[in-house]
């Protein structure tokens, strides 16, 4: 089953938000087992650069684990181009997919924003690296354009693809 991680934010003078390094960006996701419904209370850190071989020995996944409750083997693969899709000024106020997860035996339930985002100003060439969105908002001043920038009301959700 494929799940799209979508975010929505209110942008002011921000041209785009994108992970600084798509390959090493850490996606902090909480999952529940789709077999028994057991939800672990810890976030899993997924990264395109970190893979493991599944129990069958066939193929690699970005998360391989066994449900502690029912014993089911589960995997998650971050789909290609995840993290390379920017959230643009034109997307402000709307949900947009940033990452897609191919989940076998797991269902994502929560996403925790962290650091590692690159933010570009909309009215200058100013770029801010390693921006943290853990507080679900960010403000800064662009000295080149002489204006404030803000990312506010950040929300996330997972949408199951049909």
Structure report:
- The structure is a single chain.
- This protein has 162 residues and is mostly beta strands.
- The chain has one domain (2-160).
- It contains no helices and 15 strands.
- The strands form 4 sheets. A 6-stranded antiparallel beta sheet has the order 7-8-10-1-15-14, with no helix packed on it.
- The protein is elongated.
- The protein starts with a strand and ends with a strand.
- 25% of the residues are buried.
- The model has no long low-confidence stretch (mean pLDDT 93).
- Number of discrete domains: 1
Strand fraction equals: over 45%
Tally the beta strands.
15
- The rounded distance between the terminal residues' Cα atoms is 9 Å
Shape annotation: elongated
Number of helices: 0
Q: Summarize the biggest pleated sheet.
A: 6 strands, antiparallel
H and E order = EEEEEEEEEEEEEEE
Radius of gyration: 17 Å
Spatial strand sequence of the major β-sheet? 7-8-10-1-15-14
Structural class: mainly beta
Round the mean pLDDT to the nearest integer and report it.
93
| Stretches with pLDDT under 50, minimum 5 residues | none
Secondary structure: helix percent: under 10%
Strand and helix layout:
Blueprint: E1 2-12, E2 14-19, E3 27-33, E4 44-46, E5 52-53, E6 60-61, E7 63-66, E8 73-78, E9 87-88, E10 96-104, E11 106-112, E12 117-121, E13 127-131, E14 138-142, E15 147-160
Antiparallel strand pairs: 1-10, 1-15, 2-9, 2-12, 3-4, 3-11, 5-6, 7-8, 8-10, 12-13, 14-15
Family: Belongs to the UPF0587 family.
Keywords: Metal-binding, Zinc
Pfam families: CXXC_Zn-b_euk
């Amino acid at each position: 089953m494929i799940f799209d991680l979508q975010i929505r934010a209110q942008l002011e003078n921000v041209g785009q938000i994108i992970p600084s390094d798509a390959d090493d960006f850490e996606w902090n996701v909480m999952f529940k087992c789709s077999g028994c419904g057991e939800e672990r209370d810890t976030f899993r850190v997924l990264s395109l650069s970190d893979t493991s071989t599944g129990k069958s020995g066939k193929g690699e996944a970005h998360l391989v684990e066994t449900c502690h409750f029912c014993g089911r083997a589960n995997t998650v693969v971050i789909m290609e181009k995840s993290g390379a899709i920017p959230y643009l000024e034109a997307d402000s106020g709307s949900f947009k997919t940033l990452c897609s997860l191919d989940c076998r035996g797991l269902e994502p339930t929560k996403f925790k924003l962290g650091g590692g985002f690159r933010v570009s100003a909309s009215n200058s060439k100013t770029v801010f690296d390693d921006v943290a969105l853990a507080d679900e908002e960010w403000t800064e001043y662009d000295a080149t354009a002489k204006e404030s920038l803000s990312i506010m009301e950040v929300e996330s959700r997972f949408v199951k693809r049909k």
